[in-house]
Specification:
Strands 7, 8, 9, 10, 11, 12, 13 and 14 form an eight-stranded mixed sheet that branches. The N and C termini lie close together (5 Å). Helix 7 packs parallel to helix 9. This protein has one domain: Metallo-beta-lactamase, Chain A (4-Layer Sandwich). Strand 8 and strand 9 form a beta hairpin. With 251 residues, the protein is an alpha/beta fold. Bound molecules: zinc ion (ZN).
Length: 251
């Protein structure tokens, strides 16, 4: 499996000013290439990526929730890989809210272009061409699910936007790679996002082979994510790194 972070921005200001790119994360597994949370700029970053990633060759989209920094380019990516509906192919796995809610972000006319479309549910398992995707309900301001992907005996988990709660440790147990949306450096009341201390707690308990911090807001950028990651590594003795735009890792 391979993961490429086209963007690592989280929170409104970092996205609005494009201090970091808000493009999504490209995952390659078992011969498939798909995108998690294609935020603003994903289509452009795919074309500008080195090596270039052909949007027509994408096999699917995973969308954790409707917020614009995650969902903005989802429609255009689906249109690109289905060639405007000429080729019925690929998948979209997302929330009911994203597909059918009052604030749905996926245009209904695209539904019929896809080979497989499914909605997330708590602890639901979806399989597609040798890849298993398990989803867990998070606590966030929209209907949000975190994602655990297993392929060829390896598991990568994405703890996307959420407030901290203890069950997260159980949901994401046995992850080889743990990727955590660490929006804030310091916690803030009523902000349903993980802070540096929350990320450290999760890493300490879950103990993956490697942890990666991403989706940074301003407080994290000011604290320098690579320094924060180094501190977490030293404290937990789990190798922890900070993602940067364009970074790839292979498992
Ligand atoms: Zn969000």
């Amino acid at each position: 499996m391979k993961v490429k972070f086209l963007g690592t921005a989280g929170a409104r200001f970092v996205v609005a000013k494009q201090i970091r790119s808000s493009a999504g994360t490209v995952i390659s597994a078992n011969g498939l290439t798909f995108i998690l949370d294609p935020g603003p700029g994903t289509l452009v970053r795919l074309a500008k990526s080195r090596p270039k990633i052909d949007s027509a060759k994408i096999d699917g989209v995973l969308l954790s929730h409707i917020h614009l920094d995650h969902s903005c380019d989802a429609n255009v990516i689906i249109d690109a890989f289905t060639q405007g509906g000429f080729t019925k192919k690929g998948f979209l796995f997302t929330t009911k809210e994203a597909l059918f809610g009052e604030n749905r972000v996926i245009l209904p006319y695209l539904h019929g272009f896809l080979e497989k479309m499914e909605t997330f549910e708590h602890k639901k398992q979806i399989t597609f061409k040798g890849i298993t995707i398990q989803t867990f309900k998070h606590r966030h301001t929209a209907e949000t699910f975190g994602i655990k992907i297993t392929s060829c005996g390896k598991t990568i988990s994405f703890i996307v936007d959420t407030a901290y709660f203890d069950e997260l440790n159980e949901y994401y147990a046995n992850s080889d790679i743990l990727i955590i949306n660490t929006v804030r450096f310091t916690p803030k009341e009523n902000v349903l996002h993980l802070s540096k201390d929350d990320a450290e707690e999760l890493i300490k308990n879950i103990r993956p082979q490697k942890a990666i911090l991403t989706h940074f807001g301003m407080t994290m950028l000011r604290a320098k994510p690579f320094i924060v990651a180094k501190e977490i590594s030293d404290k937990t003795r789990v190798e922890t790194i900070a993602a940067s735009d364009g970074m790839s890792i292979e498992i």
